[in-house]
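User: Hey, my collaborator sent me this sequence without any context and asked if I could get a structure. I don't really work with proteins. Can you help?
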Amino acid sequence: MTALYIQAEGSGPASQVWPVPDTVPPGAVREGASYLFELRDSGDALAADLLIDDAPVEALRSREPRNAKWRWQPGFHAGVVEAVLRVPGIGTRRFEVTTDPDLRKLTRGDFDAMVREVLEDTFALFSLSAFRKGIARQPSNRPPPLARLEFLRSRANAIVTSVEAIARAPRHYLRAEDITVPAHRATRATGPEIVKSFRSGVIRTETVTPSRLPAALKGRLPAQITLRQRRNSVDIPEHRQIKACLRSWAAWLGGVADLLAKADSTNDPEIITTAGSWAVRTRRIARRLNDVSATGFMTDVSDGPALLRMSSLFRNDPVYQRIYRLWQDMNLGLAALFGDFLQMPLARTYELYELWCFLRLLRAAVEEYGATGVDLSNLFLTEASGGVTIAAGAITVPIGGDRVLCFQRQYREYWVEDSREGSFSRTMIPDVVLAGRNLGGPERRVIVLDAKYRINDGLNDALNSIHTYRDALVQEVASGRTEGIVTAAYLLTPHVPAGLHSDFKATPVPGRLFHPEYREKFRFGAVTLRPGMLGEELRTCLRTIVADAGAGA
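Assistant: No problem. I've predicted the 3D structure and written it out in structure-token form, which is a compact way to encode the shape of the chain:
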């Protein structure tokens, strides 16, 4: 039988991933390693193709004519990837592969958290800007960027899981209703129900003797008796709201899928592949949301508004509380927010991490130094068709006083700059620069922060960049000499150091880079910045960077 297997290159057992996937133990597929896919026992092996996240996998030559091999290296990727196997005699088959991360590294959940926090920070910063434009919901006449589609897909899957959890024990209430039945079927009718039924309908008189009716009825009885019954009902406001939201999301995703399918008319094969794949995925998500809204207990739920209103049930029940948080996430994912940073698949998490660091620090700086003097006009671009785009590259945001926070600022050769400030070798673009006065002292300071999506030994290689920034960024003084302008340089990384000694000299790299004494002494090192950090933690991180940059000055 034709089947596809995955195996660690060099050694290890092979696990079947298609058509019937095996249970792959945790850690069997992890980032930073190399793996082989092998299609076995196929008459069309030579014509088979394998794609992961829409990118073709490196094909290898197989010694067996009925087998096909591919080499896959996840790289800096952790989470769920979608694989597509195309075999002429079988067709196109889709399946998923989960790669496990280092426990201290960003995971798929952290990717979702980064997208969520980018959107949250954008909303928070947008409210401080001079723009007055609605971005609450994007119309379905424009395809959302890839990162938002990834985010919506993960949220939709979590929503389906949460609704299924509710279906196992849905909240209900005793609902009273009146039903009218013929008198001969009202065997359990009460006195008040019979008396009430005399008020309407036909009254019949008993003709047999002796009477079988109670004496108080005087031989008369309504032909129809209205009974009051109570039964369990799941038709509560919270369920009606959830059902309406599911249908609304499904309709929106269906419209997006149609737009993505139209991209097949373009001449760019890469766009066709990506758009076509996402059209299939988006339709599948919409179908799942529609199915879950029309099965199980949802069949007894009536229509309601597509808006969750906070109630005691959403506040106190953990399962319903989860669906409420996911509804908030979906609202963020549906916002009319665009930008080049969102046009990336999950495998390019490191690019999203760079912008995430900038927005997190910008929001922390606004909260730390106050909103007075903050100018966000360079950060947001409004569109005539609606929505907001985050400007990409070379963004400078004044954050009060003489302070500025820059994202991917370009430092050209200093002799071509009017300020006579720049690089003495080539154009350099650090990820984040915090510059100005009142940063731990009255003199002007320049703090370079380079965001690196790396951990462990990978940070050793990343040191070259901040060494370069600190040494090569200069300014020309009146005498014609050049002086360095970088006060401090730090790596921003998701790495969490462990086992720091009291003496930084006894702490090996990369842990040494995080040692407080090392950072203060050399104004150089690394700072942990991970998704999920609270606002106070981010402000503490910012204070630490500024304080270290001023130490020993």
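In plain terms: Residues 129-140, 268-272, 336-347 have pLDDT under 50 and may be disordered. You can pass these tokens on to your collaborator as they are.
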